[in-house]
Amino acid sequence: MKTMTPSRVTFSTDQPRVAASGLADSAVTEISQELRQLLADVFALYVKTKNFHWHMSGRHFRDYHLLLDEHGDQLFAMTDDIAERARKIGGTSLRSISDIARNQRLQDNDAEKVSPKDMLTELHSDNQLLTKYLRHTHEVCDQGNDVATASLIENWIDETERRIWFLAEISQEI
Ligand SMILES: [Fe+2]
């Protein structure tokens, strides 16, 4: 009977694949791709949140301006952990702004003027979508037995749900 040796996926020299994590190559590929998209979405949402922080107006300017700054800080803090998680399991991450644009699922908002209510409503639905994407990545991590990434994702879901809660409460009263 012919013995089968485990197949090794080879990559170009600028992407050395060292699966020190012990995860299967297929899981590393799949989870890294999930993390790449998540990172692109979080960068896109970070910039949109800062955009709305900078361009906020109206009666509740101070409250909303400060809230969105807080949300921006939370999102920015996620970025390094997402990228480094991909590297820890032996994958790669985003390399440029154009790489973000290729991978983001959340849409940019380049409008000249956005009302405070529209800003908060849009961020609310973007954060809801982010939760959905995070849950999907969690499922992929479960399938690939990547407990540590799944654990980080649980915290990011909790933080995202907190942002959703605040945005829902304040956008109701406008
Ligand atoms: Fe600021």
Give the topology.
Blueprint: H1 25-55, H2 61-88, H3 97-103, H4 116-143, H5 147-172
Key words describing this protein structure:
174 residues; mainly alpha; Ferritin; 69% helix; elongated; binds fe (ii) ion
Describe this structure in words.
The protein has 174 residues and is mainly alpha-helical. The chain has a single domain (25-172), classed as Ferritin, core subunit, four-helix bundle (Ferritin, Up-down Bundle). The protein has five helices and no strands. Helix 1 packs antiparallel against helix 2 (61-88) and helix 2 packs antiparallel against helix 5 (147-172). The mean pLDDT is 92. Bound molecules: fe (ii) ion (FE2). Residues 53, 69 line the site of fe (ii) ion.
Number of strands: 0
Ions and ligands: fe (ii) ion
Q: Which word captures the global form? A: elongated
The helix/strand series, from N terminus to C terminus, equals HHHHH
Please estimate the helix content.
Answer: 55-70%
State the helix count: 5
How many structurally independent domains? 1
**CATH topology term:** Ferritin
Question: Summarize this, please?
Answer:
This protein is mostly helical and 174 residues long. 69% of the residues lie in helices and 0% in strands. The longest helix has 31 residues, at 25-55.
